[in-house]
Amino acid sequence: MLCHVDRKAASGSDTCDLKAHPVPVDLRVYHALSKSPMAMDIYTWLTYRMFVLRASGKRAARVPWVGLMKQLGANYADTPEGLRAFRFQFRKRLREVLLFYPEAHGHVKDEGTHLMLTPCQLHLPGPDAMPRLL
Known about the structure:
The chain is α+β, with helices and mostly antiparallel strands. It contains 4 helices and 7 strands; from the N terminus they run ββββααβααββ. The strands form 3 sheets. It has a 3-stranded antiparallel sheet with strand order 5-7-6. The chain has a two-stranded antiparallel sheet with strand order 1-4. A two-stranded antiparallel sheet has the order 2-3. It is globular and about 40 Å long. Mean pLDDT is 83; it is low at 1-15 and 129-134.
């Protein structure tokens, strides 16, 4: 089953209406990753970021580890040790996510203080290519 995220998401001062620009996610991937909430979060985050990169036409996006930990790593201490632990777990779970999103392999690179994302093919068709359910 495929799903399109259709709720409003706020990021900083910018509000993005995902109803106008739905991001395709595969609920089968959520099911497969269900034993790891962090992997599920990474899948959602990565799918959204790749969708936005392609839609914006940007060649790359730089994501600081510190900011990513604030977004996805609430259970980690706000210390250098907490950041190291978060990075370790993030990279471990990212490898799992990439099993289901192989198109992103090679497009997420750890560059020390940040991740560098480059656009890749979406692993699901966009909402316009998907059949409508009645």
